[in-house]
Amino acid sequence: MATMKVPAGTAFGVESRAEEVTGSATVRDDVAPAVAPSRAATELGLKRREFDLAVHLGAVRVRSGPDGRPRVHREEMDRLRARDGFPDELRALVRTVGTAEGARLLGISPVRFTRLARAGCLTPVAFYLNRYRAVVWVYLAREVEALAVRSPELLVGNSPPWMRDRLESGGDWRPRNWRSRRIERLLALTEDPWLRVAVVAQSLDPVQLAEVVDDPYERAHFARVGREAESGRRGSVAGREAMARLMHADEPDEILWRRISLIAELDAARELRPAPRPGETRWPEPVGAPAVPAASARLSGPPGAQPPSGPGKTSPAEESQSPVAPPAPAHRTSPGASAGLLARLRLGAARGLGLRRPRHRAAVRRTRPRRGGPDKGW
């Protein structure tokens, strides 16, 4: 099964162009020889940022090595070298331009180029932060040149009415188009259902996310899965903050669409396998831990103790000593309708999941030895 790696980079927001890193698809394969991404970029005649963009666009396939790090297999290197026009064609595929260079390609002013981008005529492929921490968008050069062929009327004369309406209303479609492009690419690079949920969930703020996914265990699960899938250079703190800010949908129609997409991906993930919950697996026994009598198992802490039972279950010690009737069968709620976190904690405390501390400090003092005794280190 493919497991997507989502390294931070220019497509996700970093300080400089030199730190551009984008997502990549990874497939477990430990047989064929492979090289690290930095060496692969050198052998392919690409800069590191160009190589990372090629991976994000799907032009270069990256697999995971035995240690889980991304690797490029020799088969992929040979395939790329055998293509006609190598390496110039590969460089042209990942060539990016900013506002000034893009305006020169189209033969228009930078102001008009910015208006075209703000109106949604051009979709950014990445961004970076300049020294003033302002977002600078970059575009694929081939897409900029394609605009001149596709819509030459936008380059001369007055702007069409729909374009003027968008600009006069203060709209800026660059973040929205970049979000859509990034989410589509990352979804195309992974088949893991919970990782797909994590990708779509990035477009919603915490409030919107909690409204769609009311189960805290599910939110924690796909958040953890998303963090574990990250690799590569993470960039600066400012870059990650800009990334998180730009990833959130801000228009009502886009928010609605992302919520619907998240529900669809979440339903698919639940059908394949539910999110893990506390108490479903036994605690691992510590190596070399002394045996604890069953009578004292309930009073000892987690180290060396028998793991607590889940809601509605009793430990073996309680079954052998308690004369009460057998407990009620365990009830497990479905992932879509699980109880809240506080309710689950109250339920666990009522059924013997936790141990309460002494109510009065005096009871604790009576158990302590006096100063000067053999345990005066207390």
Q: What does this protein structure show overall?
A:
The protein has a domain at 96-172: Orthogonal Bundle (Arc Repressor Mutant, subunit A), CATH 1.10.10. 43% of the residues lie in helices and 7% in strands. It has helices spanning 37-43, 48-56, 74-81, 88-93, 99-106, 110-118, 141-150, 161-168, 174-188, 193-201, 206-212, 216-228, 237-247, 252-272, 316-321, 341-350, 361-366, and strands at residues 3-5, 24-26, 34-35, 63-64, 70-73, 96-97, 126-129, 135-140. The strands form 3 sheets. A 3-stranded antiparallel β-sheet has the order 3-5-4. Strands 6-8-7 form a 3-stranded antiparallel β-sheet. The protein has a two-stranded antiparallel sheet with strand order 1-2. The radius of gyration is 28 Å and the shape is globular.
